[in-house]
Amino acid sequence: MGENIAVAAESFCDVVREHARAQGDTIAFTYDGEDISFAALDEGANRVANGLVALGVKPGERVAFLGKNHPLYFEALVGAARIGAVMTPVNWRLAPPEVAYILGNSQARVVFLGEGFAEVLASIRGDCAALEQVIGIDAPDYPGTNYRIWRDGFPASAPAHRVRSEDDALQLYTSGTTGKPKGAVMTHGSILSSRDAKTSGEEMRTWQEPVPGDVTLLAMPCFHISGTGTGIGTMVAGSNAIVLPEYDPAKALDLIQNFNISKIFLVPAAIQILLNHPKVGEVDFSRLKYVTYGASPIPLELMREAMRVMGCGFVQMYGMTETSGTIVALDPEDHVPEGSPRMRSVGKPLAGVELKIIDEGGCEVPAGTVGEIATRSSKNMRGYWNNPDATAATIDAQGWLRTGDAGYLDEDGYLYIHDRVKDMIISGGENVYPAEVENALYSHPKVADVAVIGVPDAKWGEAVKACVVVKPGEELGEAELIAHARQQIAGYKCPKSIDFIPALPRNPSGKILRRELRAPYWVGKDRAVN
């Protein structure tokens, strides 16, 4: 059973090393019947670090992971960080051209490859000029270097490199407003301050406090901050995470029932899928302490059912990749079955987080006034990888980060999300920018004009809809156009439906009036996010 250990750490590498020293037998990760102790995690990370040095990887360089969730990803993450290298997990749901872009943009020299993706990587290998070495993590479909054999060929001695809190640690790609994703760079300091109040000298809320014996179910993908952040959080806490390769409601219910799961993070769509599973009524949820959720709003009726069935505390989280995860939270005591005005909020900022609401000119507006949400804290990313213009447009000289979300603060400091300043769509917890989808659709030779919007969806929160103008004299069907898009972008980004219309509404300067396209679908909604 883990202990509560206060670690004065500059990096999550230090945290793992200290837990290995103080409670080495404590289980850090469990996966498919295999337990990895903190001592084994620490030793394995050292071997990975020495292996990467032997491959010529230098501080500041990027290494990548392409695969579903696996505890050895975290071992590789810590190992890379110990020599100053930066892990870049790639969304395995992306189409091959999108994967190639991220590997090329990050200039990753080494890719750790999970099972099932050898064919994808082989198809784009020629487009990844920097890539020198592929290492398969329990990947029987990959005939090349085997991770465990490779790792164990190097010494377990700690590398000499000193990791500092300001060093880059993690690079996660976010969808781009112009159609190309951007690499958000988090430092050890920003990650630790988001996950360990002891390290940053901040005050924890009750649900944040690590408890000896806690077991967390890691079900969200590690290419998101929700997945990697959860794993780093359990490493910092010195507790056990049970890892699912991907979200599976049946397996999640089985683990909750049989493995004393005490904490789990889910997006609202995943909560709904769990509650709809036929086995949910057979599960004993009594050991579950907290369900944390975020990425999109949750309907009151779904929240009420979840509270009734699961009987635990619920915490709504608001944050983004650019803030290294959660910066605002609605505490369990603010969740009441009958509903309340505060349940329409996302809560109050965590300790050390500043919030303000600004107008188009960047000036702060009074409480109750809708504007763009801006935040400043040690949790903010360093910036976007090799993209100073995008960084400058997001973070100002005083350190305030513009979130792209519209909302307001009430007199008590609770934050309410009202709309999105950006045109981003959140479908099933995944961010989709219209520009990416529009670029894919517009490449069809029969498309004259296109605009993509988000519309309410009962299951996914929001669904992607395209409004398309077909070239004169051409005929084009919905199925044909969606199939065309699937060849270029991930399936979750593709339109669920298409409206073929005579012309797109535009203002005098030619800008598409998306709000006019969206308006009919949001009638009766008091906010334009679902």
Task: Please write the CATH class name of the domain at 28-201.
Answer: Alpha Beta
Q: What's the CATH H-level superfamily name of the domain at 28-201?
A: ANL, N-terminal domain
- Number of DSSP-assigned strands: 26
Percent of residues in helices comes to 25-40%
Shape, per Cα inertia axes: globular
Estimate the mean pLDDT confidence: 90
Low-confidence runs? 1-7
Strand arrangement across the biggest beta sheet: 2-1-11-10-12-13-14-15-16
Q: Count of DSSP helices?
A: 16
CATH architecture descriptor name of the domain at 28-201: 3-Layer(aba) Sandwich
% residues in beta strands:
25-35%
Layout of secondary structure:
Elements: H1 12-23, E1 27-31, E2 34-37, H2 38-54, E3 62-66, H3 71-81, E4 86-90, H4 96-106, E5 110-113, H5 118-124, E6 133-136, E7 145-146, H6 147-152, E8 168-174, E9 182-187, H7 188-195, H8 197-200, E10 215-218, H9 225-237, E11 240-243, H10 249-258, E12 263-266, H11 268-275, E13 290-294, H12 300-310, E14 313-320, E15 325-330, E16 348-349, E17 354-358, E18 371-376, E19 383-384, H13 388-394, E20 401-409, E21 415-420, E22 425-427, E23 430-432, H14 434-442, E24 447-457, E25 461-470, H15 478-486, E26 497-500, H16 514-518
Parallel strand pairs: 1-11, 3-4, 3-5, 5-6, 6-7, 10-11, 10-12, 12-13, 13-14, 25-26
Antiparallel strand pairs: 1-2, 8-9, 9-19, 14-15, 15-16, 17-18, 18-20, 20-21, 22-23, 24-25
Question: What does this 3D model show about the protein?
Answer:
By secondary structure, this protein is of the alpha/beta class. Among the domains are: 28-201, ANL, N-terminal domain (Rossmann fold, 3-Layer(aba) Sandwich), CATH 3.40.50.12780; 425-522, 2-Layer Sandwich (GMP Synthetase, Chain A, domain 3), CATH 3.30.300.30. The strands form six sheets. It has a nine-stranded mixed beta sheet with strand order 2-1-11-10-12-13-14-15-16, sandwiched between helices. Helix 2 crosses helix 3 (71-81), helix 4 (96-106) packs across helix 5 and helix 11 crosses helix 12 (300-310). The longest helix is centred in the N-terminal third of the chain and has 17 residues, at 38-54. The model is unreliable at 1-7 (pLDDT under 50).
